[in-house]
Design goal:
Layout lengths: L5 E5 H9 L6 H23 L6 E11 L17 E14 L10 E10 L11 H18 L3 E10 L5 E9 H35 L10 H13 L3 E5 L6 H14 L5 E6 L2 H15 L7 E3 L3 H4 L18 H15 L2 E2 L1 H11 L3 H8 L5 E5 L1 H4 L19 E5 L5 H9 L1 E4 H11 L4 H26 L13 E5 L5 H27 L6 H24 L6 E7 L6 E7 L3 H8 L4 E6 L5 H7 L7 E4 L9 E6 L11 H14 L6 E6 L2 H15 L5 E5 L6 H9 L9 E7 L17 E5 L8 H12 L4 H18 L10 E6 L6 H4 L10 E3 L4 H12 L1
Helix pairs in contact: 1-3, 2-16, 2-17, 3-4, 4-6, 5-6, 9-10, 10-11, 14-15, 14-17, 15-16, 16-17, 20-21, 20-26, 23-24
Bound molecules: iron/sulfur cluster.
């Protein structure tokens, strides 16, 4: 049938969506999340222990056709969903002889395994949502295999004791059909809405055209993006400022969506400012009549109605009864607006008294474009599981657009690494001592195991080659294999299991409790939960360790301070596995050079596409000067060098009054040179200097940037900042708001244990370890900082690089082609270069 509209939904999503009720409670979520993760391993064990006729992980799908005459919401011109494609994966399918059958005749059976920390002896019936999930599988099995009767076995397994409790239900296909009909009748209005929306979305996408005349090269970029989606690949796209990359990525992806080649777009960003640009781009397209639903996900800490999230009915009024009201709130939001921005989410959450963060996550199921931080897709702890459930075809429609993708290397490393600190464990043990002596004792045991490992660390570090030495610090660092720290990880596993039980118990107690907890106790519980999440991440990471990881320990400056870390050296493999959850991934940035480095560390394969777009700006409008007699190298640091650098800054900004940013390798460096510059070279009547500081609030950052909104031909403003910090990328100071940057040093990260491990690792991989650990990340910061100057076609400005190392071939080969016409001078001669440059343009 030409007009047939089928809406896909996973069984799990369906039952959780329709059958949820009651409070939001992250104390139980923690325990059940843990049960889910540990449970995956237990599942496999239970499945393996079954008989030969037991089929594990059976993928099931069935197209349920709606009856014609049912009432429901019919939006957008009367279009209705004809059918729902139910998809899911049953834990097991086997045969069993029901006890009530005198002939012992075997029936087909569905096994649904659930792992928990609950006391199974107190369970009298399966959880309704679990049973509903199993019934859906049973229904699908009956339809697929033409069965008239089936047995449902709910297998509950206690993760701690490994006790197993079964619940059985023998049910006819007829009864299952009646039950499924009722369930899907409830779902119909949502399916109808999705169907109508899909049609409207497709029609309006087809009518939407590129909103401007294409800039030079922009059309080719858009074509590359489109082709990548069609060929289901990854694209690594270096697109300098001015190429209009947000639109060049979004527009063709929408077009692909209109042709059914994409179902949902994840626009992934590292910073809020880039997510705002994506939202504005969609608004621009909406002006043409495009109908598209988009949501911008805001971090829980920012959108929460409390000062700090504490998601349980005792602490948060929105959490109480949240699930009783959430579907009404969703429905209102869905039918009232297309752009689910922060203001809209706040308003609807307020009206229906639900959690705004959970509302944003739930509405994302109905959004065509989800604008969010990388975390929501890549982070193993917080990724949006609802979209990436195994066993559904929905994965095939996801397209990931990764903006400012150079950030994903370090972000990936952080997401896939895990660490625990002894001092944190000890502190929690002390805090829990009075109220939870059992937990406190378990934490103590762990801290003691860490103390023993700390002593071994000192011993190992004392061996020749055992210590990585650092400037100005006296830490001991040692690397270990997983076997060598087995005692430690066993102790952690015991603590982990104990805490799983403890949290489950706590949740039960909280349900029975009449009185509210004191503030102090609430804080303690929150601290316990936060630590539990850290431990959970650690145990999870431990279970996936491979040769991309190093295990290392480090003793710290403070007495007793000790770190145990699982350090992910190369996040590429895990990032690539996540990207498999989508049809195509477009990774784009203004600075993705050298592309082979990013391709390797961001999970690219040889056959994935790579494109380098030309800058659309006249390269002559950016004056690049290199000082050939100064450096930020440690071996040369001292007052003489600082003075020469200060003189270089003075020269670079002397050609024209206006606004400049000056970037330093560290705050200490900033202070040394900044002080000299201000006392010796700065005329306060004509030049203002302001400084970034390490603990700026959002208001202070905004105030700092607001100073650049005005400029003068008779007065200069110099903003002293650190390279790689908040002002060196992601800020957009156009025209005269910024006429130059001065960059001191090459941006290479400080030597430390982790960088040295990276160097060693990539050397062993056959790459240049120094480049991968130091030079490439440093040069990226330099390119980002220099990229602040030319933001529009009309901009003219300078970038002065104050380090002689930029003149070596190792750096020169990393220069973008627009930088080939740089000029050099001694630091004190930069003034002449600046004068000459500005005399051409002013
Ligand atoms: S409003 Fe805040 S504390 Fe309440 S449930 Fe939502 S995130 Fe948690």
């Amino acid at each position: 049938m030409a007009d047939e509209i089928v809406i896909s939904v996973s069984v799990r999503t369906l039952v959780e969506f329709l059958l949820r009720s009651g409070d939001l409670d992250n104390r139980s979520a923690a325990a059940s999340e843990d049960a889910m993760l540990t449970g995956a391993r237990m599942h496999r064990r239970l499945q393996k222990a079954q008989g030969p006729d037991y089929e594990s992980e059976v993928t099931l799908s069935w197209q349920y056709v709606f009856p014609d005459d049912e009432p429901g919401l019919v939006p957008q011109g009367g279009t209705r969903a004809n059918a729902v494609l139910l998809e899911g994966r049953a834990d097991g399918v086997f045969t069993i002889a029901p006890q009530d059958d005198p002939n012992g005749q075997k029936l087909p059976a569905i096994d649904e395994i659930k792992t928990t920390y609950r006391d199974l002896s107190k369970m009298t019936a399966p959880e309704p949502v679990h049973l509903a999930q199993a019934r859906c599988y049973a229904y699908m099995l009956c339809r697929i295999r033409g069965l008239s009767q089936v047995v449902i076995r709910m297998t509950y397994c206690n993760l701690d004791t490994e006790d197993i409790h079964y619940f059985y239900e023998k049910i006819s296909a007829e009864d299952l059909t009646a039950w499924t009909d009722a369930l899907l009748r409830e779902y119909r209005r949502w399916a109808d809405f999705s169907a109508g929306w899909l049609q409207l979305r497709t029609e309006t996408i087809r009518r939407t055209v590129f909103p401007y005349p294409y800039r030079e090269g922009q059309k080719e970029l858009a074509e590359y993006v489109y082709r990548t989606i069609v060929h289901r690949k990854k694209l690594f796209l270096e697109a300098p400022t001015g190429t209009g990359k947000t639109l060049a990525a979004l527009f063709p992806t929408l077009k692909a969506m209109g042709e059914g080649k994409a179902v949902r777009i994840f626009y992934l960003t590292a910073k809020t400012v880039t997510s705002a640009v994506a939202g504005e781009t969609l608004e621009l397209l909406r002006k043409q009549g495009l109908r598209l639903k988009n949501v911008t996900l805001t971090a829980k800490e920012k959108i929460c109605v409390l000062d700090r999230p504490d998601c349980n009915p005792d602490a948060c009024p929105r959490a109480k009864g949240h699930f009783d009201r959430i579907n009404k709130a969703l429905y209102a939001l869905l039918t009232e607006s297309d752009n689910f921005d922060r203001a809209k989410l706040d308003a609807v959450a307020e009206e229906y008294q639900v959690c705004p963060f959970e509302l944003s996550l739930d509405i994302s199921m109905f959004a065509d474009v989800i604008i969010c931080d990388y975390n929501y897709v890549f982070d193993p702890e917080v990724y949006l599981r609802r979209f990436f459930d195994a066993g559904t075809t929905q994965l095939s429609g996801n397209v990931f657009l990764v903006d400012e993708a150079h950030n994903l290397v370090e972000r990936g490393r952080n997401m896939y690494s895990a660490e625990l600190r002894r001092e944190g464990i000890l502190q929690l043990s002390q805090e829990a001592d009075r109220e939870f002596p059992g937990l406190s004792a378990q934490l103590q045991l762990c801290a003691q195991a860490m103390q023993r490992l700390s002593e071994r660390t000192a011993e190992r570090a004392a061996l020749p080659g055992g210590t990585v030495s650092f400037a100005e610090r006296d830490h001991c660092t040692a690397q270990w294999t997983a076997e060598e720290i087995a005692d430690m990880t066993e102790e952690l596993a015991k603590l982990y299991a104990y805490m799983g039980r403890f949290l489950e118990e706590e949740r039960r107690r909280a349900r029975r409790r009449r009185r509210k907890l004191s503030e102090k106790r609430r804080e303690l519980r929150k601290g316990i939960l936060e630590f539990y999440f850290e431990l959970d991440h650690f145990m999870d990471t431990l279970s996936v360790l491979d040769d991309c990881y190093r295990i290392y320990t480090e003793t710290g400056d403070a007495p007793g301070s000790f770190l145990l870390k699982l350090f992910c050296m190369d996040p590429g493999r895990r990032l690539a596995a996540v990207m498999e959850r989508g049809t195509a991934t477009i990774l784009f940035s203004a600075t993705l050079l050298p592309i082979r480095y990013y391709k390797k560390l961001l999970g690219g394969k040889a056959e994935d596409y790579e494109v380098y777009a030309h800058s659309v700006f006249d390269p002559g409008k950016l004056g690049i000067f290199i000082a050939d007699d100064v450096t930020s190298k440690y071996t040369r640091r001292g007052n003489g060098e600082y003075d020469r650098i200060a003189a270089g800054i003075a020269g670079a900004v002397s050609g024209r009054h206006g606004n400049y940013l000056v970037f330093f390798p560290s705050y200490a460096f900033l202070k040394q040179v900044g002080d000299i510059y201000e006392t010796k070279y700065c005329d306060p009547a004509r030049i203002d200097c302001i400084r970034q500081n390490p603990k700026m609030t959002e208001e202070e950052r905004a105030a700092f940037l607001s100073r650049f909104e005005t400029s003068s031909d008779e007065h200069s403003l110099l903003g002293f900042c650190v390279l790689g910090g908040i002002f060196s990328e992601g800020i957009d100071l156009r025209n005269d708001a910024l006429i130059g940057v001065v960059i001191v040093g090459t941006g290479v990260p400080q030597v430390c244990a982790e960088r040295e491990m990276l160097k060693e690792y990539f050397d062993a991989e056959g790459d240049s370890g120094y480049d991968y650990a130091y030079r490439f990340p440093g040069m990226n910061k330099v390119l980002q900082a220099a990229g602040r100057v030319i933001r529009t076609e009309d901009d003219v400005g300078i970038a002065a690089l104050l380090d002689e190392r930029f003149l070596t071939p190792a750096y020169q080969r990393l220069f973008p082609r627009e930088w080939q016409n740089y000029t050099t001078a001694g630091a004190e001669g930069l003034g002449h270069l600046a004068d000459r440059f500005w005399s051409e343009w002013l």
